[in-house]
Design brief:
Order of helices and strands: HHHEEEEEEEEEEEEEE
Largest sheet: 4 strands, antiparallel
Distance between the termini: 48 Å
CATH superfamily: Immunoglobulins
Strand order of the largest sheet: 1-2-3-4
Helix content: 10-25%
Structural class: mainly beta
Shape: globular
Low-confidence stretches: 1-32
Strand content: 35-45%
Oligomer: single chain
CATH architecture: Sandwich
Mean pLDDT: 79
CATH topology: Immunoglobulin-like
Length: 214
């Protein structure tokens, strides 16, 4: 039986207060995260309802808040088939839910970076991407040389190796060629592209096309 160890995932505001947060926010934005806590109980209620509605079959003990931005939050859970699900939710009940098969990104076969959940809006002016680093750690990420916010989001210990999850956040939808810096468990540093669209979705939402840093 494989050994799976998923670390407790914390709200973004809590992670930012710890040494576990690397990189810097890409730009100034709302910083009154304390006031956001007033919306947390309602977000949690919506998340619990959504994860058990229809055929979601979410396991309540795995529910965790990845990031919160005002009245919007991004949640993660595993269902009874062990599929990994993410949900962008709002306090008024809006939701975008995506689930991956139980095998997730597959076995750990070497040092690599994979996208687990694609670029997702959290409210109007905040976006996040969930990635997994196999046998390595994401130390930073950037868009055209400008730092993005990176926070650890958990670890899976699999028979084939260690997979670490990271949340990459931005005040705009990232497109083009954002990159992450990955430090392998053997000590080798490499740059890896983040898997995003070539162009932002648009629809009146903020977007940024990342180019290679000069």
């Amino acid at each position: 039986m494989k050994k799976r160890q998923v670390l407790v995932l914390l709200a973004c505001s809590a992670l930012l207060a710890t040494a576990g947060c690397t990189g810097q926010p890409a730009s100034d934005g709302p910083t009154d995260t304390g006031s956001w806590q007033a919306y947390r109980p309602e977000l949690d209620r919506v998340a619990r309802e959504r994860m058990t509605a229809g055929n979601q079959n979410g396991r309540p003990e795995t529910l965790a808040l990845l990031a919160q931005h005002g009245r919007a939050g991004w949640y993660l859970w595993r269902n009874t088939s062990d599929a990994l699900c993410t949900a962008a939710l709002t306090t008024d009940g809006g939701a975008v839910i995506r689930c991956r098969p139980s095998e997730g990104p597959g076995p750990v076969t070497g040092t690599r970076l994979q996208t687990v959940a694609e670029m997702t809006p959290i409210g109007y002016d905040h976006w996040a991407l969930l990635v997994a680093a196999d046998r390595g750690s994401v130390t930073a990420a950037s868009c055209g040389g400008r730092d993005l916010q990176v926070t650890p989001a958990g670890t899976d210990v699999l028979p084939s190796g260690v997979r670490r999850y990271y949340l990459v956040q931005s005040p705009w939808e990232l497109a083009g060629k954002p990159v992450a810096q990955v430090l392998s468990d053997s000590g080798t540093e490499t740059s890896a592209p983040l898997d995003v669209r070539a162009e932002p979705i648009g629809h009146g939402m903020p977007g940024q096309v990342c180019t290679a840093a000069s």
